[in-house]
Amino acid sequence: MSGVVIIGAGHAGVQLAASLRDAGYTPDIRLLSADPDFPYHKPPLSKSFMATEDAALQPLRGEAFFAQNNIELSLGVDVAKIDRAGKSVICADCETIAYDKLVIATGTSARKITVPGADLPQVYALRTAGDARAMRDALPAMKNVVVIGGGFIGLEAAAMLSARGVQVDVVEMAPRLLGRATSESVAEAVADHLIKAGVRLHLNQSVKRITAQDGAVCGVQLGEKFLAADHVLVGIGAVPMDQLATNAGLSTNNGVVVDAFLATDDPDIFAIGDCVSFPQVHLEAQTRLESVQNATDQARALALTLTGTPKPYTALPWFWSDVGTLKLQIAGLSDKADQLIETHDAGGALKSVYLLKQGKLIACETLNSAAEHMLSRRMIAEGFTPDIDLMAGGDAKALKLAYQRALKG
Description:
Layout: E1 4-7, H1 11-22, E2 29-33, H2 48-51, H3 63-68, E3 71-75, E4 79-83, E5 88-91, E6 96-98, E7 101-104, E8 108-110, E9 123-124, H4 129-138, E10 144-148, H5 152-163, E11 167-172, H6 184-196, E12 200-203, E13 209-213, E14 216-222, E15 225-228, E16 231-234, E17 238-240, H7 243-247, E18 256-257, E19 269-271, E20 276-280, E21 285-287, H8 292-306, E22 318-323, E23 326-332, E24 339-344, E25 350-357, E26 360-367, H9 370-382, H10 388-393, H11 396-408
Parallel strand pairs: 1-2, 1-7, 2-3, 7-19, 9-16, 10-11, 10-16, 11-12, 18-20
Antiparallel strand pairs: 4-5, 5-6, 8-17, 13-14, 14-15, 20-21, 22-23, 23-26, 24-25, 25-26
Helix pairs in contact: 1-8, 9-11
């Protein structure tokens, strides 16, 4: 075996294989996936896939794509070790696979909660198709569910469960939902949306234990407060799957450490996606991002490097989340914003929040305003900051006109 070996067949790994072929790469490409399922889109897992009994996984690419592009896809393969000296990976079944270039795209695993009762069978995480299937199978028996964690995955699942008539309680240690992911205004709007849907929120609360009766979950203890529950979903974040890199002597720090070209300490080993700590040009700091956009854009950038036209990774991050009927979209990164400008729709509901740092637009959060989100992505990427009053007016057409005029110079 020669060519490129990719460990991980999620959004990053599959996109890299596709982009390499698009760029004219002709040597062998082998994708190794620990997941037994054919590569699939992950965002639907907490929403449509779990909510619909007979829903199928949405494949990242059709089976014919891999055959037609001579990409060898191996499912259910656990890589045990990277042998840098021998330029090979050793699988758990002792198969040894040689590489010219190796790409680590292992993603993340669900962060585990360490309280008594966390290992009960009615306690779920939601990171893989297997997780989603297990929870979906239990849906008919769910009457009272406690969601631990006020992040995207937990809130998406909470909205879905509530819409099915399940009583949902969300427990969050922080004083508000969505932590550092959004502004406080957007977090409050999401909280209001969930409350109106019947979800009960418990902020500034920590879980003491998950209680059981006759071996099955019966509730969650929060200090002096007890929440009745028959099932629990834990959504307290994710940890990068970087142990292979660590064991191979590569630098890791909340992810596999790479440079602007997504290269590790070893010139023949690269890393992309959710498992990577990279120099984020918009933050001007080393960071790790969990998003489909970041994973796929890093894959496209690395394909250029591996085919002889290297460019540093500079893509603008953007994110989305569907919390019931509320579509939240974020362009840019709001870290250290010092000015926020809110806009509202005709009914007074929050529509968007523009975030600035030292007078420069660095991020925009929108709620059910897709056109405004798309425009903000272009403006931030181009370094264009509209007039403050124009942003405050909330008129997307006027903003677009100002942006187009600026482009014409």
